[in-house]
From TrEMBL:
Keywords: Membrane, Transmembrane, Transmembrane helix. This is TRAM/LAG1/CLN8 homology domain. The chain crosses the membrane at residues 12-30, 158-181, 193-213. InterPro entries: TLC-dom, TLCD5. GO terms for cellular component: membrane. The lineage of its organism: Eukaryota, Viridiplantae, Streptophyta, Embryophyta, Tracheophyta. It comes from the Eukaryota. Residues 32-221 form the TLC domain. It is found in: Membrane. It is a multi-pass membrane protein.
Length: 231
């Protein structure tokens, strides 16, 4: 068990340093773009890799969240440590930006605490990997919509398509898959801290879902008014 914890710690430390170096490299390559532009590219790299790792760590494809309340496998712990390193990096990196998002800080703090709790207890690896998949599957589209705005595609059909893809995937993952995963986690014999983290993450997801609904309503109203003026 000590070897597993050492491996988790090593992955977290090396990952934290690696994310920082990747950001510095991307920042130099895209020096003409904003700080936020570079962070979103790094975030997209993490989200894509995290979804792949989470998918590869599934033990039973007939029941992706099984075995429930079981001891985490080494691959699951490595996947969680990988994302833990990114969350710590991103939380630190956000403090160097000109605009600090309280919503984002709370979200990252909940995720970090959840990762640490899961790794410490070495339990519910299946549930936590499923949560990672659910939370990151929509992230590439989240960042794509902002990247498109910065490179000159604001208020275009392409940008609207990215908005719709993000809103659809987020809603299905967080508000359909999310509640089911919370129910499975809470009803199983998991540590109370893990249950609290699952519920907290779902509440954060519900808050973002509300904001996304308002955003999409505004987008479609704006597009409709624009089309009426053009005709």
């Amino acid at each position: 068990m000590e070897e597993e914890y050492k491996r988790v710690i090593n992955i977290t430390i090396i990952g934290l340093l690696s994310w920082g170096l990747i950001f510095i490299l991307i920042r130099r390559i895209f020096a003409n773009y904003s700080f936020d532009f570079s962070t979103r590219i790094v975030s997209t790299l993490h989200a894509t890799t995290a979804v792949v790792l989470a998918t590869l760590s599934i033990q039973d494809w007939s029941c992706p969240v099984c075995p429930i309340a079981s001891t985490s496998s080494l691959r699951q712990m490595e996947t969680l440590a990988f994302s833990l390193s990114y969350m710590i990096y991103d939380l630190i990196c956000s403090h160097f930006d000109q605009v600090i998002s309280i919503d984002n800080a709370v979200h990252h703090s909940v995720c970090i605490l959840g990762f640490v709790a899961g790794l410490f207890y070495k339990k519910c690896g299946s549930e936590m990997v499923a949560a990672l998949w659910i939370t990151e599957i929509s992230s590439p589209f989240l960042h794509l919509r902002e990247i498109l705005k910065e490179i000159g595609y604001r208020d275009t059909d392409l940008n609207l398509a990215a908005d719709v893809c993000f809103a659809t995937i987020f809603s299905l993952a967080r508000m359909v898959g999310g509640p089911y995963l919370v129910y499975v986690t809470i009803s199983a014999d998991n540590p109370n801290l893990i249950k609290a983290m699952a519920l907290g993450l779902q509440l954060v997801s519900a808050f973002w879902f509300y904001k996304i609904l308002k955003m999409m309503r505004y987008k479609f109203i704006k597009r409709t008014m624009s089309n009426q003026k053009s005709t």
